[in-house]
Amino acid sequence: MSDEEKAKNMEVRNSIFELAKQLENKSINPSDARKGDLKKCADLFKSRGYSNADIAEILDVDEKTVQRYIKDQREENALAISSDFQKQMVGEVVRDWHKQYYRLLRLSYSEGMTANEVMKAIYLAHQVEKDGIELLERLGYLSKSVGADDIKGALAREEKEEKVRKELEPLNQALDKIAYMQRNDVHMFLIRRFKEVEVEATKMAEDIFAENEKKKLTSSGGTANA
Questions:
Q1: Do 60 and 4 fall within a single domain?
Q2: b/e string for 177-207 if b means 16 or more Cβ within 10 A?
């Protein structure tokens, strides 16, 4: 949709909003408005939660006419909305959904939050995700049958991975045992080497002590002779 078409549509919407406001305030007579505009106003009032009786009173028509106005306008809207426009709108909805989802997840990682607040943020994030998926399903962009097939495929893959894990379990246990034995060997080597170093250090200290004592005796003997 070009910028010019968007501006034109916005202008039309604004004029309908203004007309609806004037009709509701009784500042304009419904008979002075075009029938096509009355249909747009009827649909607008309905989208705002007005009952058919309320709309009938505002437009000065009976309720059956209101029902026909709304039906005709929604059929016209459906014809006016192209597939490209629908895809664009769905794309915007999905982008907004993703933004909300990741914003809530980031919030759950924030510092200073209590455990209850974290759980609430995560719950709301997954609720947004669930609502988005359900919306895409209702619009026909996601198929439940395809989803079921995806789930079956995921379960089959998980079952296969579990089978492989079980087959590799003896090998993993053997590797763990080897790693434990190697760690134990290294530990024993370090203990043995520590004891050897301790013995060597003790012997070295004793030799140094004996040498010092010998020097003292030699020095004492020389002093006595003098």
A1: yes
A2: eeeeeeeeeeeeeeeeeeeeeeeeeeeeeee
